[in-house]
């Protein structure tokens, strides 16, 4: 019997007709027909998106609908389809489900195939004895996810374990943020969220393929095999990569085989900014049958993590192909609360947001999902390193069955699927759970029960060592790599900085000397058009009912207000609230990164919380839920640039700090001026300076420039001959003497083929100038923001996807600090 495999997709795109109906739960009276009248469904998909497409519910993101639709997560749902099947001579038939969300019972032709309770893994069911020639009926019933989580939590030994959410998401292997987070909506959903198919095969099939590419051109391809019950013939497994091939013959029943190819003169894969991203096609063929082949791509690279103690503590230093990488990154959450709406186009747009901001790493956070193939493929292609959390976040987790078995199966599948990706740079055991156990008062309620430590320090590192030994593993974030050191100690490993935002002013960033910051951030509202598309309070107010629906952080808008500190005045209207809090978010994060980069090489990188949003919300994101780049994003583009110049406080006065994170020598002339906030240049000094490749240096600001005679009316600008700039102020904006906009600058609008340009000419200091074209057209996008101009300078904003407005632009479309303080 030769190898032969046929895969028939059962998704909507393949022509299968699916329906969904309610089975249990608090369905509103006006929708009780859902118990008896199925509604059309899309597979892959989710019940919320199915009900929305059918016109049965309003947009869950709009207004206060999130609360009004909470019944969906307390309801059981049944998905059904029928398909035709004719025997084709193949010996084995299997139903393959790549992802079921989450507690599901699968029935075919009235026979229960099995029950699942893990969104993060695939399942395979033998249906050889259940299929019938002709029409077959498939039903997948999902238990209510909120009720299931509550039940599993209550049934666990000792009851609920500590967590950070009203729902016990830690009791069920389901996307944690689906139950709500301090930036995300509570839209606990169900559905067949990944492809589902019928596979028929004989002889043998590829059960798993795990090609591991090494930096020297060696490809080790681990192949797992499954055999049909009557298989008697040996099979040939062949691997081709580049111009090389390797082949092995295996006897029936052989469970696994490793084939080795060596690609001569291999081109190595590099992170962006360090080299190119060559990818090699790999094909694994079983028995010479094209239907049994596997295809993918790999990049040849090495990744190492340096943690050895030094005189300062211990670093967290990532190297690729032997070269140290300074990390400029962000944390990544699911890009939509309804993840089945995402596709390659949406992923590429969001990853481009990271690249355009100068980033080289994204951290897939542990409260989300193991991301789609598109995500990792794009990161491979564009050179974005991936830090991959295992899916544990901000909670204690049981280490007993049945959860332990699900965790192990899920982790093995995830490592097997993702290990081939060149961009994958680190596996991480959890988000904040070790920190939580030490510091968040978990130990008393746990009373000696398991909380996940065995996963992070034993099970997961063993799985990574077995299945992906080329890629480093970290037990957690934050973590100090010692059981005897606080997990969030700045001197060791990784740290999270959250007293800033929650408790103290952002100037406190300078109190830290972290080796690596894997989480820190500050909130700000989304674009005006994004906010007002879902918040309809009359009048619009920071503490309005619907506004607070779209602010999930505890006392979030109060923290926004408190966070202005002495930096900016309290707003007098909603437009000023929006502008000042967006500006303050950008400044706070930039302030932190400038400080961290100024610590190089002690500090080896930072990852801001967070790049993206999963709905329209006030949050820490740099890009909002409608894909509009907030002022924070433009600040990140500046401070994450290859070359950064800042002015920092030093022991004897201000210091100009330069960080050159590029492979080229940086030779430039610094022009340092103390100026009035009007038109006068009060002192000037110049100096030539050279910064080595991947290096840093500093220059003390000369006293003639650093010493002010009028703190409220003077400032320092530092310019390089290649276009970089930095500023130093002797006073906060609340006391800085700035001219009002009508005296400080003029702005002119000119139509272009793709939109329009706004050119601003400064007659005095114009601080943090920003244009918000979405105020006029939600589709409009602008190329720059937060521009500071001295008298005589000019800047042109370029707006796309919009028609030029008639007449001059003013508040609230064109903003600056000047209009906030006047």
UniProtKB/TrEMBL annotation:
Domain Glycoside hydrolase family 2 immunoglobulin-like beta-sandwich: 217-301
SUPFAM superfamilies registered for this protein in UniProt: (Trans)glycosidases, beta-Galactosidase/glucuronidase domain, Galactose-binding domain-like
UniProt keyword list: Glycosidase, Hydrolase
GO MF entries: hydrolase activity
Database matches in Pfam families: Glyco_hydro_2 (PF00703), Glyco_hydro_2_N2 (PF22666)
Broad class of enzyme this protein falls into: hydrolase
Highest taxon in the source lineage: Bacteria
Protein name from the UniProt record: beta-mannosidase
Lineage, highest ranks first: Bacteria, Bacillati, Actinomycetota, Actinomycetes, Propionibacteriales
């Amino acid at each position: 019997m030769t190898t032969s495999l046929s895969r028939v997709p059962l998704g909507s795109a393949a022509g299968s007709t699916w329906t969904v109906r309610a089975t249990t739960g608090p369905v509103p009276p006006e929708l009780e027909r859902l118990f008896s009248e199925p509604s059309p469904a899309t597979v892959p998909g989710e019940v919320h998106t199915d009900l929305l497409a059918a016109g049965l519910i309003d947009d869950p993101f709009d207004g206060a609908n999130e609360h009004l639709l909470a019944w969906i997560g307390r309801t059981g749902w049944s998905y059904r389809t029928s398909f035709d099947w004719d025997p084709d001579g193949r010996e084995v038939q299997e139903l393959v489900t790549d992802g079921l969300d989450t507690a599901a019972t699968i029935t075919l032709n009235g026979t229960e195939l099995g029950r699942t309770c893990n969104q993060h893994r695939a399942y395979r069911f033998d249906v050889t004895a259940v299929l019938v020639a002709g029409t077959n009926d498939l039903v997948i019933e999902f238990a209510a996810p909120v009720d299931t989580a509550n039940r599993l939590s209550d049934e666990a030994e000792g009851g609920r374990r500590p967590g950070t959410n009203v729902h016990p998401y830690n009791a069920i292997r389901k996307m944690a943020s689906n139950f709500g987070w301090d930036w995300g909506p509570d839209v606990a959903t169900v559905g067949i969220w990944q492809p589902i198919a019928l596979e028929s095969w004989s002889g043998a099939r590829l059960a798993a393929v795990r090609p591991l590419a090494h930096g020297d051109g060696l490809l080790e391809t681990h192949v797992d095999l499954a055999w049909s019950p009557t298989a008697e013939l040996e099979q040939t497994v062949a691997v081709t990569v580049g111009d090389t091939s390797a082949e092995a013959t295996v006897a029936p029943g052989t469970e696994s085989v490793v084939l080795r190819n060596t690609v001569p003169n291999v081109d190595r894969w590099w992170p962006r900014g360090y080299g190119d991203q060559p990818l090699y096609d790999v094909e694994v063929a079983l028995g010479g049958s094209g239907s049994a082949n596997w295809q993918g791509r790999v990049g040849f690279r090495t990744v190492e993590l340096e943690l050895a103690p030094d005189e300062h503590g211990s670093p967290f230093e990532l190297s690729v192909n032997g070269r140290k990488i300074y990390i400029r990154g962000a944390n990544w959450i699911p890009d939509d609360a309804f993840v089945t709406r995402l596709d390659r186009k949406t992923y590429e747009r969001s990853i481009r947001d990271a690249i355009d901001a100068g980033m080289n790493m994204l951290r897939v956070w542990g409260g989300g999902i193991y991301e789609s193939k598109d995500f990792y493929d794009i990161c491979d292609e564009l050179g974005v390193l991936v830090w991959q959390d295992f899916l544990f976040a901000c909670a204690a987790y049981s280490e007993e069955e049945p959860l332990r078995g699900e965790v192990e199966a899920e982790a093995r599948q995830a490592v097997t699927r993702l290990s081939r990706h060149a961009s994958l740079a680190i596996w991480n055991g959890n988000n904040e759970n070790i920190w939580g156990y030490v510091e968040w008062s978990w130990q008393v309620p746990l009373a000696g029960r398991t909380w996940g430590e065995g996963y992070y320090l034993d099970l997961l590192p063993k799985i990574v060592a077995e299945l992906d030994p080329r890629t480093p593993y970290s037990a957690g974030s934050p973590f100090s790599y010692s059981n005897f050191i606080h997990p969030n100690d700045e001197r060791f490993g990784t740290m999270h900085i959250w007293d800033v935002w929650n408790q103290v002013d952002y100037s406190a960033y300078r109190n830290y000397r972290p080796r690596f910051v894997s989480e820190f951030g500050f909130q700000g509202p989304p674009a005006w058009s994004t906010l007002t598309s879902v918040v309809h309070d009359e009048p619009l107010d920071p503490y309005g009912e619907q506004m607070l629906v779209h602010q999930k952080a505890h006392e979030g808008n109060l923290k926004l207000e408190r966070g202005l500190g002495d930096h900016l005045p309290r707003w007098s209207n909603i437009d000023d609230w929006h502008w000042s809090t967006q500006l303050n978010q950008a400044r706070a994060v930039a302030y932190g990164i400038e400080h961290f980069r100024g610590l190089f090489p002690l500090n080896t990188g930072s990852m801001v919380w967070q790049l993206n949003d999963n709905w329209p919300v006030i949050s820490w994101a740099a890009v909002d839920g409608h894909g509009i780049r907030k002022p924070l994003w433009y600040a990140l583009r500046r401070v994450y640039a290859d070359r950064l110049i800042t002015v920092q406080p030093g022991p004897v006065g201000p210091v100009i700090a330069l960080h050159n994170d590029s492979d080229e020598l940086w030779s430039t002339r610094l022009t340092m001026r103390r100026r009035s906030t009007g038109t006068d240049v009060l002192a000037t000094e110049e100096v030539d300076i050279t910064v080595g490749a991947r290096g840093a240096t500093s220059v003390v600001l000369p006293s003639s420039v650093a010493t002010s005679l009028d703190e409220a009316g003077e400032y320092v600008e530092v310019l390089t001959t290649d276009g970089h700039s930095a500023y130093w102020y002797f006073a906060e904006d609340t006391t800085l003497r700035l001219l009002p906009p009508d005296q400080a600058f003029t702005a002119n609008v000119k139509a272009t083929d793709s939109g329009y340009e706004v050119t601003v000419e400064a007659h005095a200091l114009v601080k943090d100038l920003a244009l918000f074209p979405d105020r006029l057209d939600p589709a409009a996008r602008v190329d720059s923001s937060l521009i500071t101009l001295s008298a005589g300078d000019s800047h042109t904003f370029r707006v796309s996807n919009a028609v030029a407005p008639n007449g001059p632009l003013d508040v609230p479309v064109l903003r600056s600090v000047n209009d906030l303080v006047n």
